[in-house]
Amino acid sequence: MSEINERNRASFEETAQELHDKLTLGQRIADAVAKFGGSWTFLISFMLFLGAWITINTMGFFHVIQFDKPPYVLLNLVLSTVAALQAPIIMMSQNRQQAKDRLSADHDYRVNLKAEVEIRHAHQLLDV
Fold first, then answer.
1. Would you put residue 90 in left (φ > 0), alpha (ψ -120 to 50) or beta?
2. CA-CA distance, 121 to 114, in Å (whole number)?
3. CA-CA distance, 121 to 128, in Å (whole number)?
4. Per-residue confidence band for 117, with pLDDT thresholds at 50, 70 and 90
5. DSSP letter, residue 62
6. What whole-number percentage of the chain has pLDDT above 70?
7. In this structure, how many other beta carbons lie within 10 angstroms of the beta carbon of residue 9?
8. On the chain, which terminus has fewer CB atoms closer than 10 Å, C or N?
9. Maximum CA extent, the chain
């Protein structure tokens, strides 16, 4: 029985590898952006960036001309641009993940169907 499980897992891994090998550059980039955009690293670094932006423009550090005085119109533009670009990229990655999930569900269905056939065959042998 474990031999069958190993063959099924190997078959699924081969199929998943084939799916991964067919990725276009855009799909690879979308996956990388989605992975980074949903991480604590992104969240913390973006919060630090926002804090620095607001601090520099509020306090006038380094006696430099403030490039974005309150109410931070340029910062709002930057945030809107990041959101406008990040959202569709993450959706592209989610669509790919959905395709992988469908592949996994199809594989599970085939394994379960094969197991059911083998169980019925074993019952027939026991009934004789």
1. alpha
2. 11
3. 11
4. very high
5. G
6. 84
7. 12
8. C
9. 94
Task: Say if residue 71 is preceded by a cis peptide, omega within 30 of 0.
Answer: yes
How big is the chain, counted in residues? 128
Q: Which residues of 83-118 are buried (b: 16+ CB within 10 A; e: fewer)?
A: eeebeebbebbeebeeeeeeeeeebeeebeeeeeee
Chain centroid offset of residue 14 CA:
20
Digit-coded pLDDT (tens) for 78-107 = 999 999 999 999 898 888 889 888 888 888
Structure tokens at 65: 């001309």
Task: State the residue for tokens 């959706």.
Answer: 91
In contact, 54 and 75? CB cutoff 8 Å: yes
Q: Give the Cα separation of 123 and 1 in Å (integer).
A: 16
Quickly tell me which residue has 């960036």 as its tokens: 49
